[in-house]
Amino acid sequence: MKGGGSVLPCEAEMLNLVASKTNIRTPRVRRSFQIQDETQYFGTRGYMVMDFIQGQPLDECWSNLLNDDQRQIATQIADMIAQMQSIVISQPGPLGGGPCRGGFFTDYSAGPFKDTAELEGWSNQKLDMCKRVNQAPKDTPPFQFTTFVLTHQDISPRI
Fold it and tell me: CB neighbours (10 Å) of residue 8?
């Protein structure tokens, strides 16, 4: 079971979608639910009951792996990313709607965005601010989104 204030319904929906559209091993979600909890930022505490996949976290074994094994794992991860990015999503944001979270957004989330134009407007406003304070080149073109695909947003070294 996984639970907490940052466990939102979109996580279970994403796991189910990945399981049905790719050959990526994911824990099967048996049940997910939300309980109102106004002490949490999103106003709920979410829970997912899911299968456990046996394995060792990479941050615990990476430094002991041979270089060839590390390269093979990196290739497998790249393949998983490609599989996820092959899944086209019809609208911006998390599956099932709601605010966008992650490194591309503020610490408190952004949106929800009702359509592409709204996400482009928000993104271009942030880009304009970056240009004004010299955090982006002045000739950076504005965002124009044509296709939305499934992304993970939390693939990073934990070493």
Answer: 22
Residue 81 has pLDDT above 90, yes or no: yes
Q: Where are the domains of the chain?
A: 1-54, 55-86, 88-158
pLDDT tens string 20-65? 999 999 999 999 999 999 999 888 999 999 999 999 999 899 999 9
Evaluated on CA atoms 119, 121, 124, 126, the torsion sign reads negative
Residue 141 tokens read as: 């073109």
Q: What is the DSSP string of 135-159?
A: SS-TTPPPP----EE---S------
Q: What is the pTM of this model?
A: 0.82
| Spatial distance between the Cα atoms of 114 and 150, rounded to a whole number of angstroms | 17
Coil, helix or strand at residue 88: strand
Structure tokens at 96: 């099932």
